[in-house]
């Protein structure tokens, strides 16, 4: 009768040995040979009339090995299920003293496996304290947003020449030398730039310029730091590339434009905030302020969740079966890795595994689930997002069928399920941790985000 023994060989690392007697696998082997004999197509014999001795001679060795290994797997899985073993990945075979599996010499066999056990985790989210940063919305931020709304809902005109900092220029940047001679194979790219995005000292050179006029500029003099980073990135130049700011470009104006901004009246208010029935400038500014607050609240909430993540990952001690996991990285995947590669990958792998264990435990504790209807709603929201939410309050007839086609993508379903599940988990954790309020400026929050990312 088959037996399974268990031996500890390290931290959360056990050895399972499956021992088989001949009686455990021989009956199944003989039965398989009979089935082969009934279905085998061998020249000279009618189907179903092939002697079992011939089938055994031709196919027996492979069938014998297959039945032994199938029995081992069945006994191993049965033991782990009965013992309720929570393991990582799959058991890895160990070197064993079992004799060579041989159909002509059936014997008792022993197969050993290494398993990595999942650790118990002690979590108490109520001991976590985080800070909710609230961005103070200033009058200048409201004014800036109103200007953006005016441009968005304004009317584009085509003046003959540049006359104001508000002019929009369609331009082509061609990499050149200081004289404007284009560099062979250099950067050549179109862009659209407001005149006010150029540095104050350079803007004067643009006044009076018309379509097809050219200027030679150097990035570090034509743009201040913030705008230069944006232009440099758009041109495909790495910000930290040596000498990037000193590059010269011949800039050709391909079009001069100017947005005629609307007046602050009810027609404009309705364009900017349809359905809100805003009648005066004070209410309009309040609506703009609420919009800005909502945008920042989304970012501060993400930052709050990031703090919760770090509190859980950085301050939760979890033991791992390190040697097993490194061996699994090395041997347990489709592409085997070297010991050096496994060693290098292990820290990030362990950190990711730690977060998976934490979220799995918390998700189970709070019985968080995602049903198919939620996944379909998410798909619809994505489609509407791609359309710029132009469908209004009514769904287009094709939206359901298009969402159904997205749900045929297994990867989309898995990613969406995880995203919605994680979102639900953070919603719950946000209510359980201790939250301290702190008012910050937009610049301070931006600095926090800039200095920290995953």
In N-to-C order, the SSE pattern is EEHHEEEHEEEHEHHEHHHHHHHEH
Please bin the fraction of helical residues.
Answer: 40-55%
CATH fold annotation of the largest domain: Trigger factor, domain 2
> In whole angstroms, how far apart are the ends?
53 Å
* Strand-residue proportion: 15-25%
Number of domains: 3
**Major pleated sheet:** 5 strands, antiparallel
Q: pLDDT average, as an integer? A: 90
Structure annotation, total helices: 14
- Assembly level: single chain
CATH hierarchy class name of the largest domain: Mainly Alpha
Give the total of beta strands. 11
Integer-rounded radius of gyration: 34 Å
Q: Unreliable stretches, pLDDT < 50, 5 or more residues?
A: none
Q: Would you tell me the structural class of the helices and strands?
A: alpha+beta
If you had to describe this structure to a student in words, what would you say it looks like?
The chain is 47% helix and 18% strand. It is an alpha+beta fold. It has three domains: 115 residues, Alpha-Beta Plaits (2-Layer Sandwich); 106 residues, Chitinase A, domain 3 (Roll); 172 residues, Trigger factor, domain 2 (Orthogonal Bundle), CATH 1.10.3120. Strands 6, 7, 8, 9 and 10 form a five-stranded antiparallel β-sheet that branches. The chain has a four-stranded antiparallel β-sheet with strand order 1-2-4-3, sandwiched between helices. The chain has a two-stranded parallel sheet with strand order 5-11. Strand 1 and strand 2 form a beta hairpin. Helix 1 packs across helix 2. The longest helix has 34 residues. It is elongated. It starts with a strand and ends with a helix.
């Amino acid at each position: 009768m088959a037996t399974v023994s268990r031996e500890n060989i390290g931290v959360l690392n056990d050895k399972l040995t499956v021992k088989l007697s001949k009686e455990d696998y021989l009956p199944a082997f003989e039965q398989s040979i009979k089935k082969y004999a009934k279905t085998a197509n061998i020249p000279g014999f009618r189907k179903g009339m092939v002697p079992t001795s011939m089938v055994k001679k031709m196919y027996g060795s492979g069938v014998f090995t297959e039945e032994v290994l199938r029995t081992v797997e069945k006994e191993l899985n049965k033991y782990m299920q009965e013992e309720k073993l929570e393991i990582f990945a799959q058991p890895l075979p160990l070197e064993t003293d079992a004799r060579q599996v041989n159909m002509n010499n059936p014997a008792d066999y022993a197969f050993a496996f290494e398993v990595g056990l999942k650790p118990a985790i002690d979590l108490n989210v109520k001991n976590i304290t985080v800070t909710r940063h609230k961005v103070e919305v200033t009058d200048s931020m409201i004014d800036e947003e109103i200007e953006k709304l005016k441009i968005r809902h304004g009317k584009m005109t085509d003046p003959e020449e540049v006359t104001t900092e508000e002019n929009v220029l369609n331009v082509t940047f061609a990499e050149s030398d200081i004289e404007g001679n284009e560099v062979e194979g250099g950067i050549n790219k179109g862009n659209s730039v407001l005149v006010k995005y150029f540095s104050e000292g350079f803007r004067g050179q643009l006044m009076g310029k018309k379509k097809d006029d050219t200027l030679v500029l150097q990035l570090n003099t034509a743009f201040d730091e913030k705008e230069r980073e944006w232009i440099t990135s758009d041109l495909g130049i790495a910000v930290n590339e040596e000498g990037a700011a000193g590059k010269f470009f011949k800039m050709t104006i391909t079009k001069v434009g100017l947005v005629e901004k609307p007046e602050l009246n009810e027609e404009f208010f309705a364009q900017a905030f349809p359905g809100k029935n805003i009648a005066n400038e004070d209410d309009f500014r309040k609506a703009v302020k609420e919009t800005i607050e909502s945008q920042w609240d989304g970012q501060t909430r993400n930052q709050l969740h990031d703090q919760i993540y770090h509190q859980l990952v950085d301050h939760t001690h979890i033991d791992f079966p390190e040697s097993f996991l490194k061996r699994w990285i090395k041997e347990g995947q489709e592409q085997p890795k070297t010991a050096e590669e496994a060693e290098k990958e292990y820290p990030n792998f362990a950190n990711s595994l730690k977060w998976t264990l934490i979220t799995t435990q918390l998700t189970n504790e709070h019985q968080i689930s995602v049903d198919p209807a939620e996944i379909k709603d998410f798909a619809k929201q994505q489609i509407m997002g791609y359309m710029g939410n132009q469908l209004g309050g009514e769904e287009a007839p094709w939206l359901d069928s298009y969402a159904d086609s997205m749900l045929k993508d297994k990867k989309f379903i898995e990613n969406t399920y995880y995203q919605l599940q994680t979102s639900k988990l953070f919603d719950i954790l946000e209510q359980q941790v201790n939250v301290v309020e702190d008012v910050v400026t937009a610049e301070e929050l931006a600095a926090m985000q800039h200095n920290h990312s995953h």
